[in-house]
Amino acid sequence: MNDLTTVVDSAVAAFAAVNTPADLENAKAQYLGKSGRITDMMKGMAALPVEEKKTRGAAINLAKQAIEAALNARRQALADAELQAQLQAEALDVTLPGRQRGQGGLHPVSLTLERIEAIFGSMGFEVAQGPEIESDWFNFTALNTPEDHPARSMHDTFYVEGGSEAAPNLLRTHTSPMQIRHAVQHVKKHRLAAEGSVTAGDFFSGAMPEIRVIAPGRTYRVDSDATHSPMFHQCEGLWVGEAISFKDLKFVFTDFCRTFFENKDLVLRFRPSFFPFTEPSAEIDIQFPSGPLAGRWLEVAGSGQVHPNVIRNMGLDPERYIGFAFGMGPDRLTMLRYGVNDLRLFFDGDIRFLSQFR
């Protein structure tokens, strides 16, 4: 049995001498592998008498168990040593403040939309909502847009499945359809309250609260460059009543611009123009009194008195009701307010750019 004791002592010494898991597995193979010393001893039992086999087999099993115990102990010791080395290399100073995750914030265009809604809200304007996939009637026809108008071309407008050839569906090209939808519902509600019914083709000429609403949202056109995007934002405004004039338009929009840019010296210019849904119509330009844009006229909106045909399409009598409308680009207002010179930066998703507006 002395040979077994020698093998066990040799195995324990060999295991203690290695310093890596790979070397330990190589040492294991010398004793417990297919050609190892314990395996050779098991094979040599074939030539022994039956009674001696029992005694020899039991002794070899005890030696094998002792070697396996030494092997497992060394494995654990190597694992513990590796863990200690890792802990020392990655030691944490628990007295330091923890790493905090960066806080998110609203997109700069969202900040602008909130600002627009707050300013017009203080003037008594409601906020209208509507679908981004619109019918041709709400997007063009109800707004007095001619059949041959370039905006109806597939080169300018994204048409989508649904609808019919005579009345196709499309991604709205402006948020004016929301004004029409809001006005139609507003008129229907008060007409039912006053008359008890709504007859197609008749205009409502009775007393009714004013329609005062803005319509912010996403819009879509076939256009893309440094100052245009296929998807962009618009905010339309509408005020309809019995005596709403162009003078009211000038006062409201001038007050809005000066409040938005926090500049009471901001100058506005209403330049004659043409839009099918307003008459008369005007482009609105602004001029900053100081700063890098001082002295330049910058176009920010289109506006005008609501065309009588549009008033009729709202279900109102144009002989009694009149109003104004305007449309502006929140993306452009954001660029002017924050000094951004490329519209595409708003849609690239670059955290370095967006984090400036937190």
Taken as a percent bin, the fraction of beta residues is: 15-25%
N- and C-termini, Cα separation: 80 Å
What Rg do the Cα atoms give?
41 Å
How many beta strands in the DSSP annotation?
Answer: 10
Task: Decide which structural class fits the backbone.
Answer: alpha+beta
Q: What is the CATH T-level topology of the largest domain? A: BirA Bifunctional Protein, domain 2
- Major beta sheet, strand line-up: 1-5-6-10-9-8-7
Key features of this structure:
10 strands, elongated, 358 residues, 11 helices, 2 domains, three-stranded antiparallel beta sheet, seven-stranded mixed beta sheet, BirA Bifunctional Protein, domain 2, 20% strand, alpha+beta
Write a structural description.
With 358 residues, this protein is α+β, with helices and mostly antiparallel strands. The protein has two domains: 2-89; 108-357, BirA Bifunctional Protein, domain 2. The chain is built from eleven helices and ten strands. It has helices at residues 2-17, 21-32, 37-44, 50-89, 108-122, 136-139, 176-195, 246-260, 308-313, 330-338, 351-354; strands at residues 126-127, 133-135, 159-163, 168-171, 211-220, 231-241, 267-275, 278-287, 298-306, 322-328.
